[in-house]
């Protein structure tokens, strides 16, 4: 086991075995690599395949085989040869930046990044796994064992990862394929080619650390992607005591801790890459680390400790295994410098594998080192420190550089545990302390209007006896669940370290009296000088700082209330169309218990509208004047909306609700400091409707009113019995509008707050003939309501004249109707009585005439009497009947019921009055001349008798009507 404080192990096996790699490469190239020169060597390939299938091979055969492999590789196409060799390399193929040696005992910068042990609430969770993950297992925090060393997959946790109750996970990746060619000797055999390269490996896991670290004094989370390439190292049934890898199955294993500080350990892993990003709480954007170097006062950096040199395993397992030095290789663009101490063993290259040439990485080299213990004086001799660039990633790969086998026939890597350190070298440590800060508020509601407080930490010191300050950190305070505002500056250099840092910062200067102070700078992002508070600070860095805030300014809330004319509140969407209101905020200076003077220097216009929920919060108002006298704030409404009136202010006196008395704002919160003005609605609509009634007082069907012309109605108003002579609105009612009309925006009150009474009068001259005004509803008019559906004024018109149609029907001698022109015109007279009889009636003149003439028109003889009243002036109902002047040659055959109509209350159905006449009959002959003579004489005698009878009867009728 190798202890690496901040060691992200990157190990890449470069075992050079031609046949297995050649076969794998053939699969990737879809057989295109079978070139002519390779085909010519088919005999050699076949021979070598037979050799590889043997369970045991001797050293001479292996050496011969290697020579043949190298020959075949050299015969490959250049591009293929390059890709082939890249898979076998470890570290970088090109030189890397050298290291900078710091001065002896030179203090490191203060680190923005603080990864510390046992942070409360720390935990790790798996977010996503690659296809190469075989299984995961949650670790038992108390099941400490070193089972991972031997390749076991269970829930025990390695003791270096355990944090007294903190667990984690073991990730098992997909196993090796024991049937692969060259499995026992080729480290790559049994693995997918794509998994042997970090850029294509499917063996990865994405994890999240909650409460991972502190950055710039703020607790942050982290997300890491861990990617590996596999190796055959130890498994159950096989270890380094074997001379080769044996035919056992190997599972790559990685174990992670809940605590980022505790790091990771792994087995059967060739190389491991860690890509780590930090996130502020609740943010999805990674933190960008500051760019710096070792000479700065502050920087972001991490140290890789305990990079062991090349080694031979000499204890426990034999024959002894050899492995190359441990190395780390940060990703280009993520670090600004690499630093070591004087006498460091860290080198940047290694050539221990003769088949690979020079390998480049920051590594432990080959020098003997006995300091693999943090308490040893040579502990930092094999450490390297990296400062970051302005990047969002800490990305580095670790492992063992490849080395030729010595006593075994195969190459080896090792079981590794590493943790991440944000400290420096032993003699360059910055010792850190935490400085507590508490925020206290003074006054009612103080702090209730504040969400965050920003405090800055400064180093205060004397440089050559002159006062200086250096800004270190920001701290954001918020109110906790107990109502307290407490926090800490985490990871601040202690005073001795601060002195060294300042001396480093001011080279050659004399530093004295160094200490820490705090300044309150922001409340909710606003500079404290622009807020409602004044600040005083007590305490010190040892006992902690206490910041007291006293409110010197406060706020108030101006509120607009709406009511209908009945005093009911109007709220929500019902106010969406109300106009914006302007209110003038003013103030007085209190000079005594009941005395004030106006502050003419202050006046502020306040807007109130629907979008603002009819409220406006005014902050930053002085509580007192320069003489410590209380201000009293009050409001005056500027533009009273049309159709509304002021009902009251609040606060106000009981004797005069229309004057705002005002409030002092120092003893309550902004929400409690209220100034209100209430407006009552004073505009409403009225609906005017027309109702048509028939002669029976029944409402007429709408379609029967289509021929009626427009009707004029006048709308008036009054207060009490006094008519408003300045108000009249003419309203037109028509069939096209359903005999309805709405008059809008009518004032409900007069200027004195008295209710208007609205009423209507119809212009009777616009009524159609036969109708009169029956009445109005309501008869006394209405006071307008907010709900316009309740504001209805009706006028009813009733039909009091009717049209009575008459017709004449002619029949021939056979009783058939005569519909052609032939019968004579007919003179008809109309009579009426009030007693229901059809005798001795009053002759009704039509257009000044006593009778009307019925003439033939398109097959009918008809006429219509128009606008006949149904009652006399005394309210008695009429009976109408008609009589004709009988034409000669016709008989009247109709009845009096057909010629008359009687009107009654609730029964005024109109019918057509009918006159009926028939030709006198002519009898036919029965045969013979004699009979014709007698028949002629007989008919003549009968006709004469009938005619004589009619003449006598007509004379009687004339005498009666005369």
Describe this entry's structure for a reader.
With 962 residues, the chain is mainly β. The chain has seven domains: 17-86, no CATH class; 95-428, Major cell-surface adhesin PAc (Sandwich); 432-551, Collagen-binding surface protein Cna, B-type domain (Immunoglobulin-like, Sandwich); 553-681, Collagen-binding surface protein Cna, B-type domain (Immunoglobulin-like, Sandwich); 683-797, Collagen-binding surface protein Cna, B-type domain (Immunoglobulin-like); 801-919, Collagen-binding surface protein Cna, B-type domain (Immunoglobulin-like, Sandwich); 925-962. The strands form 14 sheets. Strands 4, 5, 8, 9, 12, 17, 19, 20 and 22 form a nine-stranded antiparallel beta sheet that branches. Strand 28 and strand 29 form a beta hairpin. Mean pLDDT is 84; it is low at 1-88.
Properties at a glance:
962 residues; Immunoglobulin-like; 7 domains; nine-stranded antiparallel sheet; disordered N terminus; LPXTG_anchor; transmembrane helix
How are the elements arranged and paired?
Elements: E1 2-5, H1 18-28, H2 36-39, H3 42-52, H4 59-74, H5 78-86, E2 100-101, E3 110-111, E4 113-114, E5 123-129, E6 133-138, E7 168-173, E8 204-215, E9 218-230, E10 253-257, E11 264-267, E12 269-280, E13 298-299, E14 301-304, E15 311-312, E16 322-323, E17 326-330, E18 335-340, E19 347-350, E20 359-363, E21 384-388, E22 394-400, E23 416-419, E24 432-442, E25 453-463, E26 466-477, E27 485-493, H6 495-505, E28 511-523, E29 526-527, E30 533-540, E31 544-551, E32 553-563, E33 581-592, E34 595-598, E35 604-608, E36 615-622, E37 631-637, E38 644-650, E39 652-653, E40 656-660, E41 674-681, E42 683-693, E43 711-719, E44 722-723, E45 729-733, E46 740-747, E47 757-762, E48 771-777, E49 792-799, E50 801-811, E51 826-833, E52 842-844, E53 852-854, E54 856-857, E55 860-869, E56 879-885, E57 890-892, E58 900-902, E59 913-919, H7 929-961
Parallel strand pairs: 1-23, 2-18, 3-13, 24-31, 32-41, 42-49, 50-59
Antiparallel strand pairs: 4-8, 5-8, 6-7, 7-10, 8-9, 9-12, 10-11, 11-23, 12-22, 14-21, 15-16, 17-20, 17-22, 18-21, 19-20, 24-27, 25-26, 25-28, 28-29, 30-31, 32-36, 33-34, 33-35, 33-37, 38-41, 39-40, 42-46, 43-44, 43-45, 43-47, 48-49, 50-55, 51-52, 51-53, 51-56, 54-55, 56-58, 57-59
